[in-house]
Amino acid sequence: MNFLLSPAPHIRDNKSVTIIMCVVMLALLPATLGGVYFFGWSAAILVLLSVISAVATELVMNKMMKREVSIMDGSAALTGLLLALCVSPSLPYYQVVFGAIFAIIIGKQLFGGLGFNVFNPALVGRAFLAAAFPVHMTTWANAFAYRGLDAVTQATPLAAMKFSGQGTSYLALFYGNVGGCIGETSVLLLLLGGLYLLYKGIIDWRIPISYLGTVAVLSFVFKADPIFHLLAGGLLLGAFFMATDYVTSPITAKGMWIFGIGAGILVVIIRLFSGLPEGVMYSILFMNAFVPLINRYTRPRILGRKK
Amino acid sequence: MKTFAKGIHPSYCKNETKGLRIVEAIAPLKVIILLHQNLGASCEPLVKVGDDVALGQKIGETSKFVSAPVHASIAGKVTKIEKLPHPCGTNVLSIVIEGSGDDSRKLENSIFESRGIENISHLEIRAAVKEAGIVGLGGAVFPAYVKLSPPKDKKIDTILVNGCECEPYITADHRIMLERAEDVVKGAKLVAKACNAGRIIFGVEANKKDAIKVLREVVRHKPEEGIYDGLEVVELATKYPQGGEKMLIKAVLDRAVPSGGLPLDVGVVVANVGSCVAIAEAVFMGLPLIKRVVTVTGSGICEPKNLLVRIGTTFKDIIEQCGGLTADAYKVIMGGPMMGVAQYTLDVPVVKATSCILVLAKKDVEEEKIYPCIKCGRCVRNCPMNLVPTRLAAYANSGKFSDFDEWGGQDCMECGCCVYVCPAKIPIVQLVKLGKLKLRQMK
């Protein structure tokens, strides 16, 4: 009789890379559907195009680099989804395709594929789009504009606040019927997904809490409205789904605090003192660069060893 | 409830056997006594092919300090002395005894039988334990005699009796605590006497409430034997690896064993409950360690049992007494599912380390695809030693053994929590073992 030989342990818990990617996508589903509800079918088409382009690019890169096909692990699809959720709903379709291709090739595959990239691939794609197509990336369709109910374009709440001192009601920010990226406007739907990820133990609480907490405290210190800054822009999408990206965030508990606090400081500095209304993307990309260093200097103290 | 930091909560799968009384297995007609069953030095054979040996006769021994002699577990004739497979993976010199099933010869009674613990000196306890070949029966197989002989400069204040049994499936220690509680306590008192320790604490996981109750009764109801103050039974959280020596000490006493050190460096000696029973039997009855309790369980076993088995009985003989294997039996493991060793043959014998024979059916065996590390940090958050397992694995895998050492690779106790939670299914423990091996070879 032949028995299977393999090293211990012989039992595993039920989380695998693929399952985790799928759960994160599931958690993004409310915000994605919300985006389609607020911004119409063009948002749905952007999401689909982005996901398909990301997966197709991953497949082509796998073949070209003669590596194992990795599209089934779900990471490329997740990158495509995240990218689509942080672009303007009125973006021309070909641009999101470019963004997804850039995200997968430059943001991920050239570093060595899943697990080896330094920067969050979706944000790399978004940074590319912001640099290549700045006008389209900052033209915001108003929520429900597709139904012809309201003005076609409108500033995002953060831009309105920054450039014309105009506030937006907390309730509107909470529901999400405001201008902005496809998946970032509804605090309610993002919280739903984020809390689900925390409940399932997929993400660690330290990064979102330290990130959001820092933004709240610092905006209060600089006499801005902390609640507005928590609810507006891409902060919740970033805090729950982008900053917590495993590959590009620290692996130690202490490191997660540093990462979250650092990104929070950057968001407030960019939002309040720079020429840009929003700083979530750059805050996370900037902190991504420090992750290897943070991991190195926040090693936990081994049990039974002195400092 | 007391416990240590981090660790995991696997499903325990103990219900199959935790209610089954320990049954004495049928004495086999043939036993294979491996000459290396302990941590430390191997034994030299004391018998030749063709010799007649008696039940309990010492057949292997060495003069090295860290060692334990081995004994014949049946009476019979030595038919072979050759290298045979060890359940831990290598081939070691072994003595094969074939008997007639006649066990009539009585073992000599102990000289201490009629004496109370107070009247036995620590030297006599150590001598009896050494002669009986007792090792740590929780699985670490560290010679008990060495543990009971702490260096003069190390003051032992506490004996921790390990009744955690945190590995899933295994119920041997649980049954021992229920059925042999008095002997567990007697053995613990002997250990305390040998180490001149004033305090004995029994640590038991909360999923064995009945054992905690029984132990508490024994400890409280025998005040006249309670020559040591502070006999205490502590309930510990059910969490793996609570039974790891360092975790147990941290949980019960909040002391950290120094890196590279032993429990005695923090004034503690840890003894497994099964070892305590063996020590009591060795001292009071003169019995050498020739039998141990083995849990035979898993979805690949027809009738799971807790058996009192003679050391040297082959897995095949034992599994036959448990209704045999199921048709879909796929993986045979010596020990628990977290740290046990997969077997390729059923011809290996039970050794002193065999707490469990676990057979899993195909449906319970996971053969998963290995992904690259996605840096999720789960291993870091669950490592009870506070290591960074993903780094250790990466360093070992890429041959950077000095980095591996610098990041604490030698502190890993190979409990497997990191692999259990790893979504990329990276064989971290296997890589850490490789790293440790290379470091030993480099020295």
From TrEMBL, chain A:
It is found in: Cell membrane. One of its GO terms (biological process) is electron transport chain. The modification FMN phosphoryl threonine is found at T156. One of its GO terms (cellular component) is plasma membrane. Pfam families: NQR2_RnfD_RnfE. The chain crosses the membrane at residues 16-33, 39-59, 71-91, 97-116, 128-149, 169-198, 205-222, 228-248, 255-274, 280-298. The keyword Metal-binding does not apply. InterPro entries: NqrB/RnfD, RnfD_bac. Its cofactor is FMN. The keyword Transmembrane helix applies. Keywords: Cell membrane, Electron transport, Flavoprotein, FMN, Membrane, Phosphoprotein, Translocase, Transmembrane, Transmembrane helix, Transport. Its EC number is 7.-.-.-. Part of a membrane-bound complex that couples electron transfer with translocation of ions across the membrane. The complex is composed of six subunits: RnfA, RnfB, RnfC, RnfD, RnfE and RnfG. Belongs to the NqrB/RnfD family. This is Ion-translocating oxidoreductase complex subunit D. It comes from Candidatus Saganbacteria bacterium CG08_land_8_20_14_0_20_45_16.
Automatic annotation (TrEMBL), chain B:
Gene3D superfamilies: 3.10.20.600, 3.30.70.20, NADH-ubiquinone oxidoreductase 51kDa subunit (3.40.50.11540). Its EC number is 7.-.-.-. It is found in: Cell membrane. Binds 2 [4Fe-4S] clusters per subunit. It holds the Pfam family RnfC_N. It is a peripheral membrane protein. Keywords: 4Fe-4S, Cell membrane, Electron transport, Iron, Iron-sulfur, Membrane, Metal-binding, Repeat, Translocase, Transport. Part of a membrane-bound complex that couples electron transfer with translocation of ions across the membrane. Belongs to the 4Fe4S bacterial-type ferredoxin family. RnfC subfamily. This is Ion-translocating oxidoreductase complex subunit C. The gene is rnfC.
